[in-house]
């Protein structure tokens, strides 16, 4: 596929930031005859592959966590800082490079998707396949527009591939963008050209199931943003169409197995697909998710795993997990051996030994916030010889030095800035590669999951005024986590459940913005701006449209910039 993608890039060009053309259109700068090549079956399929490849520009980007989770209640600065502008808001401006990167990647994906539509009529494929591929890329483009409107508000709408350079596109309203996404997805669903589901076949292809799931997400967001209560009802109905009477039957731990065995489960509705067995580059051709949400826990020479050392879980997020919630130990690694060059112990030994460190001397233990002294002593008693000297690092306001083992207590917020500080996230580990490199995770990246659809339905039913149905959907997620059923529900309850079920996967910033909780939750729980969120966020309730995009677009001006910038 890489060879095909390279040819496609030659034909439809790459992205740069020089003119409006670079954000929104394509221009054939090669001597290859594009129409001739893309009219062949292999050429057309390579164009489709290129459209899917653009998903990696966002979901496999090292900036993924910054795109969607900076400036929220769940993640804090670690040994490395989160992007200050996006996490602390005060200095955020339209020159922010990360937002320019996201904005550009979305339009690159839209352009690649609509190139497929453009060349499809002449492609040497049968009508069934042609219609299927066109509808697949319509879902891709709709997903990119969903990201754009939920991050930047109204944006320029490009609805077709344009082969020649354009001088500008006006900014459309958020209402128009939502209307376009909804129209596209409803048409795709009505056409019925897509497979019903691709989850068990890798999940990488858009399907009717993923189109409906994205439509439910879109109706939910549009209901909040446009103040259309009837859209909450539509969101709940479409989400129930996706659920289709199914329960969450696969144990949470089996879904998130580090050996990929859960990747093709029916709950993973739509993925960015990876395959280590067939990867052309098994050294650095994967994605960095294994390194996310984890502080430095030893260098390459120290038998550790790669880590970004940023976006460390906040105490608030940890405390969203209740005692007995089986998702906690699937999400976080609670035990670490002495990971140093002189030892023979590795982080990855936990997987090699059958997901246990029994028999291995342990250096650090990160008990869940609800564990008592008795719980910790019971834990030591399971392997007393190897746990008698383990350094206990409480997940509480006052904890201990995780690095130098100094006596006394330190604040949790200082604790997470140390190496080994914070509970390491293991949810996205790749045990087949077991590498220190940040690009050797070959597990699928899950864009939409069935449990998220349950939570979409819960939120939509709640806002539509049907609390009974909202509780039923929420409690199906809690049942699988082996928790008691909730008896009351509000937006805070749904957001809390999203922390536990979707830790690391979700777009927390979008969730808080959508539910009008951005300022409140940052004020309460973002360690960097606690107590002053209203002051520093102010009117910055959307991300800034990149100044480069405005300057390059003859039909946009400074008047099109979002409030607060």
Automatic annotation (TrEMBL):
Gene3D superfamilies: 1.25.40.390
Sequence ranges assigned to domain RagB/SusD in this UniProt record: 267-565
Any GO CC annotation of this UniProt entry: cell outer membrane
Residue spans crossing the bilayer: none
Boundaries of every SusD-like N-terminal domain copy: 27-220
Alphabetic keyword roster: Cell outer membrane, Membrane, Signal
InterPro entries: SusD-like_N (IPR033985), SusD_RagB_dom (IPR012944), TPR-like_helical_dom_sf (IPR011990)
Name of the protein described by the UniProt record: RagB/SusD family nutrient uptake outer membrane protein
